[in-house]
């Protein structure tokens, strides 16, 4: 938006979580009003070359909202009006939970990054389900990111994920098992093969589909292969790479780098591309690439590395809502430049092992 450059310094004077709440409140205020229609006309890039069909869903463009931005499924249609082609709401848990004590979200402006240790603060799966059920219409496909309740012990993880899923089973276009957030103690150990296998078996027996697993950028590539084995075994529909990282790359300059939690944004791009490329070399299933996408170049690189769809969160904080249109337009320019007729033609042309 013309004015984001003016608004941003004001937003950045607020603590990050307050700024986030304010942005959500604004989006909620305009959702299902004529302003939403106005924004849609302004931001939407409608072009068949951007269409993507993956795991039984149709997407008008490949750029989606990553999990964590709309944790309680409050503004999916308003996000669609900003030009996104899908939104992943959540992470939701089977029970409402408060998350970690504040402050728990930090900006690193000089690194174009964020660090968060939110800890799955959310109103619970039942509330999210009711909210999605009451939508008058759906502008874009809605994925649902499922997390584990902090109170559930590891041995109850399959049952806990199942309870969260059952509360939203009828309202998600796809579902994601999130076993990769660094802010719930022990969660990332659930990526280990036997535990993951038990969780996926439970969700499949409850009918969860399309079902994707979201992985951490901190897994070594051998551990990623174990996740791929579980995906193949249960014939899952896809994979999302990657979540936030607990690694602090040496290029970081901002003092907030010493906060604990998951790092997102520009410093993650290289790792996201590497993991997506590795996954694409080892499976034909659709991949959603996420991590540090801040413009058309990063989005296009993820697609060329094998991603069918791309998501972003952190760059929206730094670039504002016009980012999505800029990426979609930029993707069209790059397709034309390289002689591709569609996103799917460009997908995976850079895969190598
Ligand atoms: C504040 C915040 C909260 C997040 N919450 C979740 C979550 O609940 N579930 C999840 O799978 N990922 C969550 N993420 C990770 C994002 O979905 C994404 O994988 C990550 O931020 C990398 O993308 P980005 O660099 O575009 O932000 C969160 C990220 C941020 C910044």
Average residue-wise pLDDT: 97
> Stretches where pLDDT falls below 50 for ≥5 residues?
none
In CATH, the architecture is Alpha-Beta Barrel
CATH class: Alpha Beta
How are the strands of the largest sheet arranged? 3-4-7-8-9-10-12-13
Structural class designation: alpha/beta
Radius of gyration: 19 Å
**Which ligands are bound?**
flavin mononucleotide
Helix content: 25-40%
State the total count of DSSP E strands.
13
**What is the number of independent domains?**
1
In the CATH scheme, what's the topology name? TIM Barrel
Strand content: 15-25%
The biggest beta sheet is recorded as:
8 strands, parallel, barrel
Helix count from the secondary structure assignment:
13
Describe the oligomeric state of these chains in a short phrase.
Answer: single chain
Gross geometry: globular
CATH homology group: Aldolase class I
Summarize the helices and strands and which ones pair or pack.
Blueprint: H1 4-11, H2 16-30, H3 34-43, E1 52-54, E2 57-59, E3 63-65, H4 76-81, E4 86-92, E5 105-108, E6 113-116, H5 125-133, E7 142-146, H6 157-168, E8 174-178, H7 193-205, E9 211-215, H8 221-233, E10 238-241, E11 262-265, H9 269-282, E12 287-290, H10 296-304, E13 309-312, H11 314-319, H12 322-338, H13 343-346
Parallel strand pairs: 3-4, 3-13, 4-7, 7-8, 8-9, 9-10, 10-12, 12-13
Antiparallel strand pairs: 1-2, 5-6, 6-11
Helix pairs in contact: 5-6, 6-7, 7-8, 8-9, 10-12
């Amino acid at each position: 938006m013309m004015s984001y450059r003016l608004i941003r310094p004001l937003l950045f004077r607020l603590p990050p979580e307050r700024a986030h709440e304010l942005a959500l409140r604004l989006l909620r205020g305009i959702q299902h009003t004529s302003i939403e229609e106005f924004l849609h006309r302004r931001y939407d890039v409608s072009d068949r070359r951007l269409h993507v069909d993956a795991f039984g869903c149709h997407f008008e463009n490949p750029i989606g909202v990553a999990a964590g931005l709309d944790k309680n499924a409050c503004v999916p249609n308003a996000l669609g009006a900003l030009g996104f082609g899908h939104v992943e709401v959540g992470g939701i848990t089977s029970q409402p939970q408060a998350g970690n004590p504040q402050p728990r979200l930090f900006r690193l402006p000089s690194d174009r990054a964020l660090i968060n240790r939110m800890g799955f603060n959310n109103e619970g799966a039942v509330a999210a389900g009711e909210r999605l059920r009451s939508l008058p219409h759906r502008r874009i496909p809605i994925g649902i990111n499922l997390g584990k309740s902090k109170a559930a012990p590891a041995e109850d993880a399959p049952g806990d994920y199942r309870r969260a899923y059952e509360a939203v089973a009828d309202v998600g276009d796809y579902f994601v098992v999130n076993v990769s957030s660094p802010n719930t103690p022990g969660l990332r150990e659930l990526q280990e093969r036997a535990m993951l296998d038990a969780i996926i078996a439970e969700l499949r027996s409850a009918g969860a589909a399309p079902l994707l697993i979201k992985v951490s950028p901190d897994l070594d590539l051998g551990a990623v292969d174990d996740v791929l084995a579980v995906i193949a075994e249960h014939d899952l529909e896809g994979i999302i790479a990657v979540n936030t990282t607990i690694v602090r790359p040496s290029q970081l300059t901002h003092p907030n780098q010493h906060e604990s939690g998951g790092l997102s944004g520009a410093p993650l791009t290289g790792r996201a591309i590497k993991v997506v490329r590795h996954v694409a070399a080892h499976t034909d299933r659709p991949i959603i690439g996420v991590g540090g996408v801040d413009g058309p170049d990063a989005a296009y690189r993820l697609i060329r590395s094998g991603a069918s769809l791309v998501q972003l969160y952190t760059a929206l904080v730094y670039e504002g809502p016009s980012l999505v249109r800029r990426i979609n337009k930029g993707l069209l320019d790059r397709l034309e430049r390289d002689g591709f007729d569609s996103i799917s033609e460009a997908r995976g042309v850079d895969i190598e092992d």
